Amino acid sequence: MRYETIPAVEHYLTADPARVLQWKERLGHHGYRIGIAWQGNQLIMGSEGKAFPLAALEGIASLPGVRLIRLQKNAGSEQLDILPQGMTVESYDFDDGPDAFLDTAAMMKNCDLVITADIPLAAGVIDKGGHALDPRGESYTKDNIKERLAMRKLMDELRSSGVDTGGPATFGNADRQAFANKLDRFLADSPKYGIRN
To answer: How many CB atoms lie under 10 A from the CB of residue 37?
Structure first.
């Protein structure tokens, strides 16, 4: 399989314009909005190293003008109950019932940055002209997202056929530092952060 053969990702998450406007009003216009999704389905073999502890974003939460907005659903949400003292993550009711992921798409459209290890979610962000970082400090871009989707698909196919592909190493201090450095550079280069800060 070659990544050039992976279909375009424009329909992974479709943001309904009316819903985008609803979430724009609901989230408000203040601050630098960072959407966060910190954990996927940990029952999937090879996904262990893709999650990162929500508390790892404590330093980001304390930056002037930064708002962390939860995009996480289900597994991992229990970490909201054990946040470090003073750390705030905004949580909203979303994606209930038949509208699963429609709110997520609209919320992402209203974020200045999305932090996630979920490659298809990042592909949806990039497709909509947004910015996304993984928790290890790597940017998802139009230049690399198709390759990352292709590798994800290949690993899924290998796991489905019984091959133990392992997974990324557990999130550690070096990852935290690489991420912090990348985020610092990203915010320094972001005119929106300077305006909203």
So the answer is: 21
